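Private note to self, pasted from the team thread so I don't lose it. Backbone tokens:
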């Protein structure tokens, strides 16, 4: 097996929160012992409900915030051991497309300057060469040359996301972290942006970490999928393995909610009872046991299930998966 492009081991991130002016400080476990691997040319989809820690993982992998514990490796080097020049090179190799196309662009900068800024920062081009490169990038993402001197507020949400994609592409990255890049867009525009991302992946041999809560979008984009719940990965595997032979009750519940056009393909809807527990006070044992329809005691309520390889390349964190889903 080739070395991964990026790999996270035991990744955790805690935040200290305080309730009220005189409240006691508590620990919020946003990411709790996550292992991830992304190979060159691969798209890894990361899915789960809002608040499960997906965006925190994106910020950790980008180096925007430090982990509380665990390690992140990029091309065989730990992020926390990189020198200044290595970090500068890492910033070029790993770019990010943000969820909100309205707040991720500087409203005081013209589009041409927004797209061209990374070229200046990394010393890749200047003057007429820089302008020519920006025009090429705009054309690749479906923007016209006359948009060069306009400001972000003059564009629609889909066009703003194209600007963000062009900015990420400017420095020829190896990897792009796409944090819910289509969730703020209309359905018709979502399809256009997804198709654009796939075309760019083929053209530039990109690797994606694609984060979304819409499983139908994740399935369309990804080679492998990781399902996240309450700061942990509960299932991971190839796209068709996760969708066709899921091994965790949470994945089963999520997939039952995906709309199906063909009546014969529709699954019985599984309504998960209750709300997601608070990451400030997570339940003992399996983090999903408070909502699981198959929960058994005391195993499920007392022992945290490890993420184990149940089938070749297919991992799950469930005490009962061998009995329930085989």
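Design output:
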């Amino acid at each position: 097996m080739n070395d991964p492009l990026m790999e996270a081991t035991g990744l955790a991130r805690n935040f200290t929160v305080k309730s009220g002016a005189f409240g006691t400080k508590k620990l919020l476990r946003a990411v709790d012992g996550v292992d991830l691997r992304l190979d060159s040319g691969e798209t890894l989809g990361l899915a789960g409900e809002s608040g499960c820690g997906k965006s925190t993982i994106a910020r950790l992998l980008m180096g925007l915030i430090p982990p509380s514990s665990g390690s992140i490796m990029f091309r065989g080097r730990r992020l926390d051991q990189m020198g200044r020049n290595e970090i500068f090179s890492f910033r070029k190799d790993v770019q990010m497309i943000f969820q909100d196309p309205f707040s991720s662009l500087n409203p005081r900068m013209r589009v041409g300057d927004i797209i061209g800024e990374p070229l200046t920062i990394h010393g890749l081009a200047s003057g007429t060469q820089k302008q020519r490169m920006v025009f090429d990038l705009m054309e690749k993402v479906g923007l016209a040359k006359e948009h060069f001197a306009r400001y972000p507020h003059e564009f629609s949400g889909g066009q703003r996301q194209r600007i963000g994609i062009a900015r990420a592409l400017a420095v020829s990255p190896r990897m792009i972290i796409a944090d819910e890049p289509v969730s703020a867009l209309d359905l018709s525009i979502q399809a256009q942006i997804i198709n654009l991302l796939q075309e760019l992946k083929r053209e530039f041999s990109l690797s994606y970490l694609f984060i979304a809560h819409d499983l139908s979008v994740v399935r369309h984009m990804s080679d492998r999928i990781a399902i996240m719940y309450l700061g942990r990965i509960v299932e991971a595997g190839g796209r068709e393995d996760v969708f066709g032979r899921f091994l965790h009750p949470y994945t089963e519940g999520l997939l039952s909610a995906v709309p199906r056009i063909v009546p014969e393909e529709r699954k019985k809807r599984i309504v998960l009872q209750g709300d997601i527990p608070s990451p400030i006070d997570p339940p003992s044992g399996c983090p999903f046991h408070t909502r699981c329809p198959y929960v058994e005691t005391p195993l499920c309520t007392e022992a945290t299930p490890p993420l184990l390889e149940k089938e070749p390349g297919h991992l799950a964190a469930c005490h009962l998966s061998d009995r329930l889903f085989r």
